[in-house]
Amino acid sequence: MDFSNWITIFISIISWVVVYISTSRLNLKDKRKQMRIQYLMEVYDTLADCCQRSHLSPELEKAISKVQLLGTDEQIELTHQFISELAKSNNTSYDTLLENLRDDLRNELNLNKLNNKKILHLRISNK
To answer: Which range marks the domain in which residue 91 is found?
Structure first.
């Protein structure tokens, strides 16, 4: 084998390694994003389900933990305010945190921003 063949083989190997590393990093980044979206959607659903109920659910504790683990700085700050208000009066509004989560999730999913930011809640009771 002459020198030019070795260079071709070497360049092919280096190219394969670069493509492999780039693809691995991209896959890891995408997997992290998907995991974050999944967890935050679960948090949003839990908070939306818990708001305006007369009792607190253990699911709320899990949702708060997930926000503190995977949320943005602003979401973590809103969560701390939510916890403080809840501890003081055993009653607080979920809306600010829900709106922030909704906006962040819509952004992550490449959905358009909403003009109407207000979240309305509907509760149907079986009597």
So the answer is: 3-108
